[in-house]
Design a protein that fits this description.
This protein has 17 helices and no strands. The chain has 337 residues and is an all-alpha fold.
């Protein structure tokens, strides 16, 4: 009996030891996943790409990195910061390395350009959904309120820490629409994209990127989208009216665009070429102002990438686009060059 009891005790000990080892392994795995997730979602994680001086190297390596983000997020699905970082990187990759190159292809490669835009749309969608997932994780009621068009209640949930995620989600939404302007179903939802961007502006007015996208909102987005947003959101309407009244630009869309342009330059210390490109394409082309077009693009090209090492990659990418615009200037103006 004693031997039997000892055997049973030993077997129970082994079972307990195995269970402990299994739990410990799972704990270690969770800790490891969380550690990698924290690294990927940190500024240092994304900085490995944004500080690079070789756009082609980043373009070649990002697809693998994006899948790594997704794999880790699948292991840690409640990590809102990782979901936000994953979405942000998908949007950046789509814009810089898929959508922009497709728009710079010669007309003879129209099939490749069309395929590029279709792929960019899918990547923007994936990025937007991850960014919205991050907001849903942080605020339990946000998804239901947004889908029910309860705009004021939904946006009231967002806090200062959500400003960057809301900004990138709005960017992704508009990016999808810009790849396929004939998607009417998507177009009818763009008031939500505009709402996210205005809420981001309200939460973090010092973000130069949100001012850059506001230039396009004022000059390129169909006015019906903003009208619809104002109709459904009293809070957004009040904020916009007060903000632009304080800026002294009132309801004039072009004055608002110029205000955001100069605000973006001031906040970035003049080291961001993107606002110059936005003004060249959204203002100068529309006005058929060749001198203004060249002036904006020359200003973009005069920026030293080393003046803002944290954004070195995007500076180089936008400067490459500026050179392409100057080299293809005849496609944008009805004059004989």
């Amino acid at each position: 009996m004693i031997i039997v009891s000892m055997k049973k005790g030993f077997l129970l000990f082994l079972a307990a030891l195995a269970a402990f080892a299994l739990v410990s392994c799972r704990s270690i795995e969770r800790a490891a996943v969380r550690s990698v997730a924290d690294m990927l979602s940190s500024p240092e994680g994304s900085g490995a790409f944004t500080k690079d001086n070789d756009p082609q190297l980043v373009a070649d390596s990002l697809p693998l990195a994006l899948k790594l983000y997704e794999i880790i997020l699948e292991k840690d699905p409640e990590n809102s910061d990782l979901a936000s970082a994953t979405g942000k990187n998908f949007v950046m990759y789509s814009g810089a390395f898929v959508h922009m190159p497709a728009g710079m292809l010669d007309d003879m490669y129209w099939r490749e350009a069309d395929e590029g835009r279709k792929r960019a749309k899918k990547l923007y969608l994936r990025g937007r959904d991850y960014l919205l997932q991050a907001l849903y994780l942080r605020h339990e009621e946000f998804q239901a309120l947004l889908e029910a068009d309860e705009y004021d209640d939904a946006m009231a949930l967002l806090e200062e820490d959500d400003a960057d995620t809301a900004y990138w989600a709005g960017m992704a939404w508009l990016g999808m629409a810009s790849t396929d302007p004939f998607d009417m179903e998507l177009t009818t939802t763009l008031d939500k994209a505009a709402l996210l961007l205005y809420r981001s502006l309200e939460l973090d007015e010092a973000n130069p990127g949100v001012h850059d996208i506001m230039i396009q909102l004022q000059l390129s987005l169909p006015s019906s989208i903003l009208v619809n947003m104002r109709r459904r959101s009293a809070a957004a309407t009040a904020y916009m009216d007060d903000y632009y009244a304080a800026a002294g630009v009132g309801d004039d869309a072009e004055k608002r665009a110029f205000y955001h342009y100069y605000r973006a330059l001031a906040l970035s210390d003049g080291t961001d070429p993107s606002p110059h490109l936005t003004m060249a394409t959204a203002v100068s082309v529309k006005a058929q102002d060749v001198a203004g077009f060249r002036g904006y693009l020359d200003a973009a090209l005069s920026i030293d990438p080393e003046a803002n090492p944290d954004s070195r990659l995007m500076i180089l990418i936008y400067q490459n686009k500026a050179r392409w615009l100057l080299e293809n200037i005849e496609y944008f103006f009805l004059v004989d060059f």
